[in-house]
Amino acid sequence: MVCLGNICRSPLAHGIFEHLSKDLSITVDSAGTANYHTGNAPDPRSIKTAAAKGINIANQKARQFIAADFDAFDYIFVMDQENLNNVLKLAETELGRNKVRLLLGSDEVEDPYYGGDHGFEIVFDKIEKACKNIIESWNQ
Ligand code: 4NP
Questions:
Q1: Ligand 1 mean position, distance from CA 10 (Å)
Q2: Is 45 a catalytic residue?
């Protein structure tokens, strides 16, 4: 799960996907295309929004997306088109490029950083719906 800072959107996506896939043997992680927040915990608004739904993301630590992630993961879900472009710049193979897609398919999870709490709730709902759809598609 990849966004820009790895403190707002992708920590939510990481926590939600991990929660929904807890009966599957998969590894879920998140990263940011930028390194401004490396080592930081998620934004308090993301922590609060997830906690209200019973998901604890407080122990996550931000890290930057790296080229080795193309080998470590089968799917790379990004939150918006800018993340998509920046992740694709790091791909060295067609196999790597094919792992990358927008989490919402053709829509974006917009950056809630400069807004209020409500933006985080909207982000949570959009991400949760997308994660449910992905897991459902794997079960078919
Ligand atoms: P995120 O949100 O990409 O969802 O983690 C942002 C976090 C920090 C900044 C921008 C977006 N920032 O400019 O510091």
A1: 10
A2: no
